[in-house]
Each structure stands twice: as C-alpha cells, then as structure tokens.
Amino acid sequence: MIEKGIDCGSLIRSMGEAARSAAQVLAGAPSAQKAAALEAAAAAILADRDTILAANAEDMARGAANGLSPAMLDRLKLDPARLEAMAAGVEAVAHLRDPVGRIIDETLRPNGLVLQRVRVPLGVIGIIYESRPNVTADAAALGLMSGNAVILRGGSEAVHSNRALHAAFAAGLVAAGLPADAVQLVPTQDRAAVGAMLRAQGLIDIIIPRGGKGLVARVQDEARVPVLAHLDGINHLYIDGAADPAKAVELAVNAKMRRTGVCGATETILIDRAYGAPLAIVDALVKAGCEVRGDKGVAALSPHVDTASATDWDTEYLDAIVSIAMVDGLAGALAHIDAHSSRHTDAIVTEDAATAEHFLTGVDSAIVMHNASTQFADGGEFGLGAEIGIATGRLHARGPVALEGLTTYKWQVRGTGQVRP
User: How many angstroms separate the CA atoms of 271 and 363, rounded?
Assistant: First the structure.
C-alpha cells in the first residue's frame, strides 16, 4: 500500500504505461474471455463479501465520525443486498453484447472502395470519484467489457471498500488470463495524484469524474485530456393540468423519496396552475418525511411548506427536501426547466399525448420522461447493465454512459488496388 509522500507524477506515469500495455491486450481479447473475467470477478465479490462488508463498515464509521451527510453515507453504504446487486450487475455486463468490432455502417463507393465504421475502445480511461464504492465495480466492469483499461482514483471516504472491491476484480482478470493492470486502483489518497492524472496526456485518453461540484469543476479546469462529465442532477417533475391525480402523487413521492441521494432524484416539482389537486401532492410528500419549500402559490396551500429562496431552484439537495413551484401550463414549465435544469433528467406527468410529445421534444436534457419516475435514470434500468456516469453534454455520449459510450470508431477501407486520379 502506497501512501502520501510519494512522487505522484512517477506513480501515475508508471500506472499509465502499464494500463496502455493492458489496453492493447484487451482491444484484441475475445468477448468470451472478457466475459469470463467479469463472471470470475462477480464470484469473487460474493466469495469475499465478509471482507468487503467489514472494509465498508470501517469506512462508514469513519465517515460518520467525520460528519458525512446522510446522503453521502447512503452513497457510501454497502450491505448484503447492495453487494449482491453489485455482483449481479457485474455479471449482467458480462452477458451484454460486446461493442468492440461492431460495424456501425458500411458504404460501397462508385470506385469500388468499401468503407466501414467499426467500434473500437477508447483506450485508457481515468475515473476520479468520491464516496461511491459501486463506481469501482461499475467502472471496472464496463471498462473491461468495452476493451478499455481503467485507472480508478476513489475518494478517501471509501478507501477500504474500494481496495477490497479492486482485489476481487484483479482476481477475476488473472483467472481469465487477462492482465491485472487492466483495472488499477491508485494506491494513495494524495490529491497530487489527481493532478497527475489530469495531466497524463498520451497515457490516459479520457477522464470521467463522478462527485460533487468541487471535484468536477477542478477536473474540468485542470484537465489536459478530454473529460466526460456532468455536474448536478437538478431534475424536474412537471405535473400537467391533464395529469392523472393518482399517478401524479405516486410519481412525485417515488421520484423524490425512493432514494434521495442518487443523481436521478427529483429536486423540483412544477405544478400546472390548471391541475386540480396540488395539495394532495404536498401532503403526500410531507407524510413521506420530505421537507417542502415552495413559491407563494404552494406556500399558501399548507402550513407545512416553507418559502423557497432564489437559490432553491438551482440546488441539488440529495436529501429529503424538494422545491415546488406553480407554473402556467407547459410553456411555464418549459421556461422554468430551461432556466434551472442541469440537463440531466426531466419528466412530465400527463394523460395528454400531444402535450407529452411537446415536452419530450422541447426539453433539452440528456433524459426526458413521460409518466415515469426520474429515479429510472440509471444505466441498469435502461438495460445497459451498469453505467459509468450520466453525461449531460452533447459531445461523444449523452445520458447513461455504458459499453457503447466507452467506445469510439475508426474507418476501415478495403480496396482492390484503386488509385486516386
């Protein structure tokens, strides 16, 4: 175990070189061999559950002592059910279709040249993340199956959990005859290691940060390699005047309260002034243990509503807090979302098909939903097995980033001796 005081530049350079060598092996590895490595890793997670849970308990105790918020502790926590789900997710990725080598399209030119666009791995992916040990498993699984080597730099909050999970993946790789350097965990919490990763041009091909605003902002400001990132999950649920009242209540409570600490949780609910039962939504959220902050129209509905401040509409609470505003129909909802959404996930509740289609095409977010909880904003729920993050930009990948999002393509051109006139 390497700790603070080492030369982080040399460490990351050495890890990057080893990762590039491993990536060359992975790029040509058969799908069956990569799948076997993931199945072995999933089995190792279950076999080592006591060790992993003990490591996580140590992280949880230290996190509580250091004052981590309930939302952060929820993200950090592993229990037998979550560990089993993690192993199942890794195994699910093993059974997904391998994107590497897939032909995207093919063209026959008039001169006889055959052009194909073929999916290839990105190469070496650096993942910088905070208190979510599930990222260790998801990133390792998706990176491996998509033919990429990954360098993981987890936060100090989950250091023991990450090390235990990484050991399971190393065992899976070796069991399948693949290089253990295909999945590496930075063995120090020295922040200089992050800076070294951000400057590792030629060794790391892309950086993916997962964490709070401070982490993501630092990565975007300092990186000398491409970055695939999202900042916040300021997600909206718009309850249209034509919404079914039972659906509206159930979706509002689930979208906010199922798990408040995930990036797919709804943070703002917008209610059409024409909707007939706004108080039922407020009452259901309060009954579920949610603090409600509202504009003047919502505050007038119930004494349990606190007046929202200007900053509430731009806040990712990651807690049992929601802001609610009354809006003038779809146009009002679209204007509010355009002003405050982080372009992550936004949803509409309505029985009017035309209004729903207008919302789905009019909201410029990575994920838009109709009559569904925003908590479905998850790679596993999208049938992707897992996700390495939800990208909110417009370049390369958008929404849950899984196997296909971790590939690029190259052109393969086949001729019969053609020369250009």
Answer: 16
